[in-house]
Amino acid sequence: xxxxxxxxxxxQLSDAESVGILENATSGTLALQGDGGYPYAVxxxxxxxxxxxxxxxxxxxxxxxxxxxxxxxxxCVIEQDEVHGEEYTTYFRSVIAFGRIxxxxxxxxxxxxxxxxxxxxxxxxxxxLGRELAKSFSHMLVICLDIEHMxxxxxxxxxxxxxxxx
Length: 166
What we know:
single chain, 7-stranded antiparallel beta sheet, 5 helices, about 30% helix
């Protein structure tokens, strides 16, 4: 599939800036094709590693059914959203990733991704993470979104401010 180019190229972030947003933010919105073809968007925690996004989930539910029904997904992260009411705008920075989503089946891959997630939200506590995974690993799914295309964008006002400082 060929993905659309961003229309407002001056506002497009570099790949490095987009990856930086994914690595710094702690949650985003996962968009899937839900029941009856309706979009289903769910806020969710994640970790980014090696061009992939990893999530964890309960064993059942709307999200799981949607993933099993269609492997196409997008994920949106908003890093900055500063309202400037007097200008009728927001100074934003965001990223949207598109790709194929799957439930991990391989135990080693599931455990590695679960450890990445745990370490992301409570770093350097390997012993505590091991105890938590021993308790909950069999009751969770681990999901992977393989990123095929990604765009980052920022408000034109932020672009102008950068130019003024260079």
